[in-house]
Amino acid sequence: MTTLGTVEDAVWAALREVADPEIPAVSVVDMGMIKSVEIDGDATVVTVLPTFTGCPAIAVIESDVRAAVMKVAGVNDVRVETTFSPPWTTERITQEGRRKLKEFGLAPPTGEGAVLIQSIGLPVVSICPFCSSKNTHNENPFGPTPCRALYYCNDCRNPFEQFKAI
Q1: Do the beta carbons of residue 21 and residue 62 sit within 8 Å?
Q2: Which tens digits make up the pLDDT trace of 135-164?
Q3: Which residues does 118 contact at the CB level (< 8 Å), separation at least 6?
Q4: What domains are defined for the chain?
Q5: Of 3, 12, 18, 80, which residue is 20 to 30 A from 55 by alpha carbon distance?
Q6: What 3-state class would DSSP assign to 14?
Q7: DSSP strand E in the chain: where?
Q8: For the CA atoms of the chain, what is the radius of gyration?
Q9: Whether the Cβ atoms of residue 28 and residue 12 lie closer than 8 Å to each other
Q10: Phi/psi of residue 139, nearest 5 degrees
Q11: Are 138 and 149 in contact (CB under 8 A)?
């Protein structure tokens, strides 16, 4: 028989393999989107914190989480709940997630300097994920998803995306 800790550890390991559907270089755990895992007998409840309320990938994330957890020995029932309380913030991204985002070419939030430009929530300080330069500028406040903006590095001359501070 499997112990509670072993099943929970196995569930967390399975969740670390669930890629963020919009940024496949990081897992939902790396992004800090898993609020909790609760084991009750052979049933498991995973609570997900989406990165924003209008996220079009919520159904995909729920499905991928459910499928991954169902493969864990000792789990026969999985319930995936979505909550916005507490709201997800970029502070939830793990250090490993930040490293993977940078390797993927996305600038993770830095926490340096002033955090927001008041009206649209853009980071004032953006560090290039390719050369680590701060000599960057915002090209467009609207990136491929509502949580990202487009930037350009004046030193290495590469475009990149930056997470908006949420």
Answers
A1: no
A2: 998 888 888 877 788 899 999 999 998 887
A3: none
A4: 4-82 (3.30.300.130), 105-163 (no CATH)
A5: 12
A6: helix
A7: 34-40, 43-48, 77-82, 106-107, 136-140, 148-153, 159-163
A8: 18
A9: no
A10: -90, -40
A11: yes
